[in-house]
C-alpha cells in the first residue's frame, strides 16, 4: 500500500478537497469552501493546511463563529443539501459559539462540517487557555457540548482515526435519512502529528445523493389509503425542496386533484398562484389551509417533520378518522402519530404512489372548495398589504412592508428570514413567484440567522437577488456579517423593520394574559429609549444604507437597492401591534393558577383548545 507522510490537519484538508458530488450531471466540489476564525487550537496546524488549498477549497473569514456557521447552514439549504461548507474555530469560546448554529442545522436536517480545536490529547499542559475542567472526568471539554446537536461526533486523538472518521462523517451528511451537522474535535497536538496515510484516502471520490425507493408493501398500503379519501390533503415540507420534487409534486397534485398546503420549510414548493396551492398551514398559516386541514380525511405529509407550528400542536386535524401517510426519507418522521410510513425519497415516493393510484382523483367539489377558500385568503392579504391599510400607531405594518417587496419581487428573488414576527408574516404575505425561493429558518427559530444566512445564501446563489428580512431585535443580536458580505462582494438587500423591541413575543405575552414586560423597549428597565440609527450603523460597515418612513419610499429605495453594486440596508419604523390574523391553536405553558385574572382566562382558553388535541387517534 502506497502511503504519504503528512500531518493530521493536512490529511483532513486533502481528503475534503478530493471529495466531489454530481450536480446537473457534472462533478463539483462537495466542500466548496470553508469559513474560519483562527485562534489557538486551529491557526498553527489547520491554518497552513487550508492555506495550501485555496485554489480548490477557499477560506472565508468570518466575524463571529456563530454567524459564519449560520452562513454555512444557509448555504447548504440554498444548495438543497448538495454541497457542504466547512467551518473551523479555535478551542473554548470559539467552539461554543458554534453550538447554536449546530442546533440550527440539526433541527433543519442540513449538513455542515464543524472542525473545532481542542485541548491537548496528552494533557500535560492542562489546564490550557480557555479550557474548562470537569472534576472527575478529565476527558471532557466544551466540544462535548456538540454531542446532542450533531448527527455525527468524533474526537480525533490518533492520526489514523481520520481514515475511519471522515468517510463516516461524509456519509452521514449525504444520507437523506440522517442528514445534519457533523463535528470533529481536533486536539491541537494531534493536528500537528505526522502519519503515513494511505494515498487512496486522497484520491478524488465522486458522490451522488441516494434516492431511496419505497417498499412495495408500504407503497400499496399508502396508495390504498389515499384512494379511499374523499377529502385528501398534501402537506409539502422541506423535503420536497431537498429532493428536487417540486415538479413531481405539482404533477401529482394536478393529476389527482389534491390541494397542497405548505410548511414554513416547504414554502415555494408550488408557486403561490397555482390553483391547488391552498397556502401556508398551521400556527403561522392561513384560514384556507387550516380549514382544509380540519376537514381532511387523508393527509399525505411529504418531507415534513410535522412540527407543532405545522400541526397546531396537533389540534388542527379534526376528523377523528383522519389517516396520515408519512412520505419521508427518515423513518423517525414517517411514523409520527401512527402514520402509514412510506420511507422513501419524496420524488420517487410520489412517482410510486401515482403509479399505484392510477386515474383516481379527489372529488371535484373538494378542489373547488379549496379554490374558494384560497381566494378569500389572497383577498385578505391584498387588503392588509395595501399601502392604504391603517395601522394602530400609523406606522407601516409588517404586512405592508412585505407586500411592497412581494409586488416588486422577481421570480428568482430569494427571501431569507428567521425568528420573530417575520416567519408568520412572510409565510402569509410572501407569495412566491418561483419555486425554491424562500428560506425562513423556523425549525430552530434562531434570532440572528437572517443576515448571516443571507450571506451564505448569496454565496450559493450568486446570480440571484437575496433579500433579507430582519427585525430590530435580531439585527442587534447579530449583524456583523453585513461587513462580511461587503468584504467578500456578496451583495444583499436587507430590509430592517424597527418595531421597538421583541414585538412578536410581547404579543404572545399579552395574548396569554401577561403584562407587557421586558420585550418592547418601552416596557423594559431602561433609563431612556434611545433610537438606533440602523442605516448609519450599516453604513459604518461599508453598506449602502438609507432610512425610509413610508411604503412609497420603501418601494423607491428597493429599486435603488436592486441596482446597487453592494449590500444595501433599508431601515423602516414599523408597527409593534399589527399582525396578520389567521393561524390556529398553539400550546404554550400558561400558569395553572394566578392572581392575574387575564392569565387565569388564558389558562382556561388553553385548556379548552387542548380538547381538540390529537393523541394518536
Textual characterization of the structure:
This protein has about 625 residues and is α/β, with parallel strands linked by helices. The chain has four domains: about 5-205, 3-Layer(aba) Sandwich (Rossmann fold); about 215-375, Rossmann fold (3-Layer(aba) Sandwich), CATH 3.40.50.1220; about 385-575, Thiamin diphosphate (ThDP)-binding fold, Pyr/PP domains (Rossmann fold), CATH 3.40.50; about 590-615. Helices cover about 35% and strands about 15% of the residues. It is built from 24 helices and 23 strands. The protein has a six-stranded parallel β-sheet, sandwiched between helices. Strands 14-13-12-15-16-17 form a six-stranded parallel β-sheet, sandwiched between helices. Strands 19-18-20-21-23-22 form a six-stranded parallel β-sheet, with helices on both faces. Strand 15, helix 12 and strand 16 form a beta-alpha-beta unit. The model has no long low-confidence stretch (mean pLDDT about 95).
Count of runs of 4 or more consecutive helical residues: 24
Strands of the largest sheet, in order across it?
5-4-6-7-9-8
Helix content: 25-40%
CATH architecture of the largest domain: 3-Layer(aba) Sandwich
Task: Report the sheet-strand fraction.
Answer: 15-25%
